[in-house]
Amino acid sequence: MAASERYSRVLLKVSGEALMGEAGFGISTSVLNYVAGELVAAHELCNEMGVVLGGGNIFRGVSDSAKGMERVQADNMGMLATVINSLAMQDALERSGLPTRVMSAITMPQVAEPYLRRRALRHLEKGRLVIFAAGTGNPYFSTDTAAALRAQEIGAQVLLKATKVDGIYDSDPAHNADAVKLDNITYDEVLAKHLKVMDSTAISLAGDNKMPVLVFDLLKPGNICRVLRGEAVGSRVEA
Known about the structure:
Elements: E1 10-14, H1 29-45, E2 49-53, H2 71-95, E3 100-104, E4 113-114, H3 117-125, E5 129-133, H4 143-154, E6 158-163, E7 168-169, E8 181-182, E9 184-185, H5 187-192, H6 200-208, E10 213-217, H7 223-228, E11 235-237
């Protein structure tokens, strides 16, 4: 994509861990406000934007903290954690003047709208940022898979994965100083090499529907806007 081109509708996935900053748990107000500021700036370039937040800063159904717990119950708790993050992000965005809607896959009308695809599309068309909470509403599916699914449902042109690293590497750069960054890679290569970009279900869903996935560093100011302008940022997964 040329630098002059822009995406008109995107889905952004942000991990819950990114929201806790240097703390080991919960939501960092400074990080929350930083991400909100980045989203407000990005929304000026692309005013049809959906967001999926993880819940790992509060609870992860597959983590050591959930050992011994029945999997469905643990996953339900993880989905509720994403709702907490979504409400916090909505508050930060609306304090910045950006109209935001939280749509939950688990019905809880007192705090969020139920997810309905047609209603989500209307919100996007009216320039409201939509946060898709509670994953898919089903256990055994990650928020990565929820992001890939919602991206397809809303007709996004690209799935953006904002992380704490600057792209995809052939091994974990935190443990291997010789890890090589991969600027472009196919869905099949991600699956064959077991690269931890997104879980295999999410990558397979994106690949089956030819949805490009862009992985980049959330913590570098302006990166979301650079991606939306079509600049070469991070790593790209496509056929």
